[in-house]
Amino acid sequence: MSKLPLVEGVLKYVREDNISFSMPGHKNGRGFFTTLKGKELMDNFINCDITEVDGVDNLHKAEGIIKESSELLSKFYGSEKSYFLVNGSTSGNLIMIFSSFNEGEKIIVDRNCHKSVFNGIIMRKLKPVYIKNIIDTEYNAPFSIDMEHFFKVIQENKDAKGIILTYPNYYGVCFDIEKVIKEAQKNNMKVLIDSAHGAHFGANDNLPKSAVKAKADMVVVSAHKTLASVTQTAFLHVNNKEDIDKVNFYFSVFSSTSPSYLFMCTMDYARYYLESYGEKDYDNLIYLADKYRKRIEKIDHINIISREYVRKNYDYDLDPTRYILNLDKGYNGNLLLDYLREKSIQCEMSDTFNLVLIFSLFNTEEEFQYLYNTLKECDIFKFKANSIELVNNYHIPKEQILPYEAMEKRKRRVRISEAVGCICGENVIPYPPGIPIIMMGEMIDKDIINMLEYYIENHINILGIDENKITILE
Ligand SMILES: Cc1ncc(COP(=O)(O)O)c(C=O)c1O
Predict the structure, then answer these.
(1) DSSP type of residue 355
(2) How many angstroms separate the CA atoms of 322 and 288, rounded?
(3) Tens digits of residue pLDDT in 90-105
(4) Which atom of ligand 1 is the closest one to the Cα of 87?
(5) Where does 107-190 have alpha helices with state H?
(6) Nearest to 237 by CA among 221, 219, 216, 225
(7) Does the CB atom of residue 114 touch ligand 1 within 6 A?
């Protein structure tokens, strides 16, 4: 008899029966079983795994039920046209980039963009100019783009064809989207928004503003992250009629010719649920999250970053359907994440200082109560660790050659101390805060070396650095 390592591994995780404060948004299937239609879909789930037989339409030439469902999606979000993505927001970012920009064009990009955006920049041979991110030093967390720097970059790069921004970021922080869109449109720049974490925005007025309703040119959202839809599903929303022909083409380039009907059915269901129950259910979820936030904050050494703090200090917004659980300086968030998993609570992610917990309409009050009890009863001193401050006054190094050109060059690894004056050959990203310090094609200067050495001394995990060595171009 052979082995089934993957199946056994996943089933072992399922048997743990963890409370899900992470993706996917259906929360262990509960999102489907709360309605009769969802239950019927789940009861017949494997039988819904079909191909383009008569009567079920074709994603690449939608004329029937897929067209009807996409139109309902578009109407609900308020777009000109919306698409079902079976390859996640990853494919959505590639479609947006390829249909908006031509080879060699300059674009303005959030330095904290997802790797699919950076990969799109390489594949389309674009020239990126980056916008810095703010790091909040009170909580040691990345707080989205630096608005002052955004305006400066726009003024200095009027020849850029468009901007690509992450809204919200992983922590749920949302910059002022209307201000950004206004400024970009004044300068004839396209606005592409990676709203992977904001598929629920627009369903209730108490959530941050929807990038689709704010009229960004294109917006991609991951249905699976916060809605009742299975992993890998996402929506692409297009607001500008003129873009639709090109988007149709690149949509077919970056989508499988065998799109899963299981995926598509759950995307239809996610929209149906949001449209039918979203308004009322988000009131309840926001109420619950707020109620338990106030309780958890009373526990010594544990804080939750509040919407009021983000509004007051940055004039930004914060998604009220996730927690950034922040530990006092001297305590380690990664250790708390491991502890919570031992207690059957699955969080989304942690860094040295913070844990991110993602809620959806299918989390219950009992689960919030259990989280509160577990935190209250834990021995917080077990999570003590050395404290460090993240660097927030960093500069973006000078670009020497374009990222796609750097990709093609020969590379070697050298000790960090010997790399001053060399061109970087691999993106270098410390976690936290997860924002690149230097990217391929940029010049390594003394300040960058100092920053890397500081993070290494303080045991921060840095992608792209191994045994104190960095990749450079030959
Ligand atoms: C900001 C952001 N954009 C895009 C993606 C890619 O989304 P997907 O996993 O749906 O392909 C992610 C995934 O975590 C993300 O965090």
Answers:
(1) E
(2) 11
(3) 999 999 999 999 999 9
(4) 11
(5) 115-123, 147-156, 177-186
(6) 219
(7) yes
